[in-house]
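pls ignore typos typing on phone
zinc ion + seq
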Amino acid sequence: MTKTMGKIGLRTVAAVLAGRVLPRRLFQRCGPASSRAVALTFDDGPDPDQTPRILDALRDAGVVATFFVVGSKVERHPEVIRRIVEEGHVVGNHSFTHPRPGAIDAAGLIAEAEKTDDVLAAVVGRRASMFRPPYGGLSFKKLLGLWKVGRSLVFWNVDPKDFSCLTVDEVRSNLSRRPLRAGDVILMHDTVPFAAALIPEIAASVRRLGLTFTTPDAWGRHR
Ligand SMILES: [Zn+2]
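k done
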């Protein structure tokens, strides 16, 4: 337990440091406060049931989002990815099979990123510049390898842990631990049935704060 905590602590500290000193096009944990915007991100899809529900809610709320997709699922549900892109959202790469960090080396992770990009290129005619490693797990070697092949790494700084919640109320309560602020990157999953119900509330609270929605790649073009 202590060992695991230590590891996570180190990773978090490294991520914070990297977020402070590296250009946003290489590494982002959150965006600039000056942007007056937050980024809503969904991992692990596309899911044939949840993703369309989320897309309906995003459309009704007038919110743009980023979907970090798993290539093997893109192959199975290409129509969902086409809809994501047609409706103006941004697609990021989240590997091909969502491997555990300890189960794959740097070359393997890069091969997974490239395989997902090939699928995306075939389905929507474009690759993803942004990459989010599964479980946020990243060694220095993997980081360098991904940079070498031109990836922009995107993490998050707000995590309501929706994957381990049993109800919408639980996700809502995790999300409300601190008020959202400009530059926040919110991590949710389009594989659990909570986000669609929460999108109207998130949109309302973001707008009440005088903020809007953006995508991490838009931040990445600024510095
Ligand atoms: Zn994931």
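The domain at 2-215 is CATH 3.20.20.370 (TIM Barrel). Strands lie at 27-28, 37-43, 66-69, 90-93, 130-131, 152-154, 185-189, 212-214. more later
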